[in-house]
C-alpha cells in the first residue's frame, strides 16, 4: 500500500470547539493580534509548538499508574534511567523538569564570563542559559542551513572548517562543543552521523568535551537511516546509540522525542562533573532519583522512549511534513526545503513581499491563518528577533512562520484542512496588511506584545 496511515487507533478524544470566522476575528483582535494571547480552546488546530503537546499512548498512561513517588531510590527512576541508557550509553543520567533546566545546570558548570561555546545553532533557551552565565554562544551551521530554498540532506550539519578555525582561535575560551539534533532554530534540519562523528573528533582533538542537545534524536536518526549512505539497513536504536556513543554528555527536553508532556535530563560520562551537576540539581530541581519530576512522569518517559524509535511511527511522522511541504510547493508557497522533522516553515518575507520586514510579514501571515481557519502558528522573524539590546529595531535574518506538529495528535484530515486554508490565503494574500506594535515588554517581546493592523 502506498498510503502511509497514522499507525495508531484513537482511544480517548479531546473535542475541538469549532469557531466561526467573525468570532475568530474578534478573539484575535481582543488578544492584540498576538497568537500567544489566545485561549487554546479558541484554537482549532494548534501548531504553536511540538513541545509537550503530544498524545501519550495507552501504555504510557498505564505506566503512569505504576509511578512510585518515593523521595529517594524510586524504582520508577531505575526504569527511566535504564530506558535512557539503552539508547544513550552515558554513565550518569540526571532527571530535570524540562530541557532548559538541564541547560541551566550544564552552563552553571561550563559557562562564565569570557567563555564562548560553538554549536550548529543554539536553541533560544540554550543561548539564554549560556548568556546568563556571562558566556557567548556562536552558531556555525553550514551555509546551506541558512538558505531556505537550497536543498541538502543534512542542513543541520556543523561547518567543520569553521569549527576547526574557531577552536584554533578561541582555544582557551571554549569549555565545551555543542550540537543540536535536529537543528530546531534552523528549521528542524538533521545532522548526519558522519558530521556528529567529525564534530566529536574535532572537539576531542582540542581536548574539549562534546555535548549533544538531543531533543529530537529519533527524528534525526530517521533522517540518517533514510538519507545517509550505508545506514538504510540499520535499526533506529543502533543509529541512536552510535550518535551518542561519541559524545561526553547530552541535554534533553523529553517534551519532544520521549513523548512526554513534561520532563528532561542531563547525561554525562565524567564522574566529577556529574557529582557537581547533582549538587546543582539538589539545590534547584530535587533529589537525583526524581530531579524535577514525579515518579509517574519518569514511568511515562521510560515507556515513551521505547515507542519513539518505532519505524512505523517515524515514517508516518516525517511523511506528514513532507506531504504538507510538497502540496505547499505545488501551490507556489515558499517553504524551507527539504521538510524538517517536526515543523514546516513558511518563508513569509518571500510570499508577502509587499509587506516590509518592519511591518512583520510573518505576523500578518500567522494572524490571517488564524482568522481564516483557526490554525495557530508561530512567527519566527522580526517580531521575535528584531529588537536589539540597545533598543533599536532591525529586520531579522528571515521572516518565517512555523507550523510545528504535536506528536500523534492530529490526523491526515487536519493536514488537508490546513492546506485548504493555504489555498484560500493564496487567493487573498496580496490584500493582507502589515502590523505595528503598540505595546511591548523590554525582553522577549513576541510573547506578550500587542499589535494594531496597519
Ligand atoms: C533544540 C531545543 N533545545 C532545548 C529546548 C528547551 O527545552 P524545554 O522547552 O523542555 O525547556 C528546546 C525546546 O523547544 C529545543 O527545541
From TrEMBL:
Catalytic activity, EC: 4.1.99.1
Molecular-function GO terms, alphabetical: tryptophanase activity
Alphabetical list of Gene3D superfamilies matching this protein: Aspartate Aminotransferase, domain 1, Type I PLP-dependent aspartate aminotransferase-like (Major domain)
Keyword presence, Cytoplasm: no
Catalytically driven reaction(s): L-tryptophan + H2O = indole + pyruvate + NH4(+)
Residues modified to N6-(pyridoxal phosphate)lysine: 256
Pathway, per record: Amino-acid degradation; L-tryptophan degradation via pyruvate pathway; indole and pyruvate from L-tryptophan: step 1/1
Swiss-Prot/TrEMBL cofactor(s): pyridoxal 5'-phosphate
Keywords attached to this entry: Lyase, Pyridoxal phosphate, Tryptophan catabolism
Presence of keyword Iron-sulfur: no
UniProt superkingdom: Bacteria
Domain Aromatic amino acid beta-eliminating lyase/threonine aldolase, residue spans: 46-418
InterPro entries to which the protein is assigned, alphabetical: ArAA_b-elim_lyase/Thr_aldolase, Beta-eliminating_lyase, PyrdxlP-dep_Trfase, PyrdxlP-dep_Trfase_major, PyrdxlP-dep_Trfase_small, TNase, Tryptophanase_CS
Similarity section: Belongs to the beta-eliminating lyase family.
Record note on quaternary structure: Homotetramer.
Protein name: Tryptophanase
Native source species: Rhodobacter maris
Amino acid at each position: 500500500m502506498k498510503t502511509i496511515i497514522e499507525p495508531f487507533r484513537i482511544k480517548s478524544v479531546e473535542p475541538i470547539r469549532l469557531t466561526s470566522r467573525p468570532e475568530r476575528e474578534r478573539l484575535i483582535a481582543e488578544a492584540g493580534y498576538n497568537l500567544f494571547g489566545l485561549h487554546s480552546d479558541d484554537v482549532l488546530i494548534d501548531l504553536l509548538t511540538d513541545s509537550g503537546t503530544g498524545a501519550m499512548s495507552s501504555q504510557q498512561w498505564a505506566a503512569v499508574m505504576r509511578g512510585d513517588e518515593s523521595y529517594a531510590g524510586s524504582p520508577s527512576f531505575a526504569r527511566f534511567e535504564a530506558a535512557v541508557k539503552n539508547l544513550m550509553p552515558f554513565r550518569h543520567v540526571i532527571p530535570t523538569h524540562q530541557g532548559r533546566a538541564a541547560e541551566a545546570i550544564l552552563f552553571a558548570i561550563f559557562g562564565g564570563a569570557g567563555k564562548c561555546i560553538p554549536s550548529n545553532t543554539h536553541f533560544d533557551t540554550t543561548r539564554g542559559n549560556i548568556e546568563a552565565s556571562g558566556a557567548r554562544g556562536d552558531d556555525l551551521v553550514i551555509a546551506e542551513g541558512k538558505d531556505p530554498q537550497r536543498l541538502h540532506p543534512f542542513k543541520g550539519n556543523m561547518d567543520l572548517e569553521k569549527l576547526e578555525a574557531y577552536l584554533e582561535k578561541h582555544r582557551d575560551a571554549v569549555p565545551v562543543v555543542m550540537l543540536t539534533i535536529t537543528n530546531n532554530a534552523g528549521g528542524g534540519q538533521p545532522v548526519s552521523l558522519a558530521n556528529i562523528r567529525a564534530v566529536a573528533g574535532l572537539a576531542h582533538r582540542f581536548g574539549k568535551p562534546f555535548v549533544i542537545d538531543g531533543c529530537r534524536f529519533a527524528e534525526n536518526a530517521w533522517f540518517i537511516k533514510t538519507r545517509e549512505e550505508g545506514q538504510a539497513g540499520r535499526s533506529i536504536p543502533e543509529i541512536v546509540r552510535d550518535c551518542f556513543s561519541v559524545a561526553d554528555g547530552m541535554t534533553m527536553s523529553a517534551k519532544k522525542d520521549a513523548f512526554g508532556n513534561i520532563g528532561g535530563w542531563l547525561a554525562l560520562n565524567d564522574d566529577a562533573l556529574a557529582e557537581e551537576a547533582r549538587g546543582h540539581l539538589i539545590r534547584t530541581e530535587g533529589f537525583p532519583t526524581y530531579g524535577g519530576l514525579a515518579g509517574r512522569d519518569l514511568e511515562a518517559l521510560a515507556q515513551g522512549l521505547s515507542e519513539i524509535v518505532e519505524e512505523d511511527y517515524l515514517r508516518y511522522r516525517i511523511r506528514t511534513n513532507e506531504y504538507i511541504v510538497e502540496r505547499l510547493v505545488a501551490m507556489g508557497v515558499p517553504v524551507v526545503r527539504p521538510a524538517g522533522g517536526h515543523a514546516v516553515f513558511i518563508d513569509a518575507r518571500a510570499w508577502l513581499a509587499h509587506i516590509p520586514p518592519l511591518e512583520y510579514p510573518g505576523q500578518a501571515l500567522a494572524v490571517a491563518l488564524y482568522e481564516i481557519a483557526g490554525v495557530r502558528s508561530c512567527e519566527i522573524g522580526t517580531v521575535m528577533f528584531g529588537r536589539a539590546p540597545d533598543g533599536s529595531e532591525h529586520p531579522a535574518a528571515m521572516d518565517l512562520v512555523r507550523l510545528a506538529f504535536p506528536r500523534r495528535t492530529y490526523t491526515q484530515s487536519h493536514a488537508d484542512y490546513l492546506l485548504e486554508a493555504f489555498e484560500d490565503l493564496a487567493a487573498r494574500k496580496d490584500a493582507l496588511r502589515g502590523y505595528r506594535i503598540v505595546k511591548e515588554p523590554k525582553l522577549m517581546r513576541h510573547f506578550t506584545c500587542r499589535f494594531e493592523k496597519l
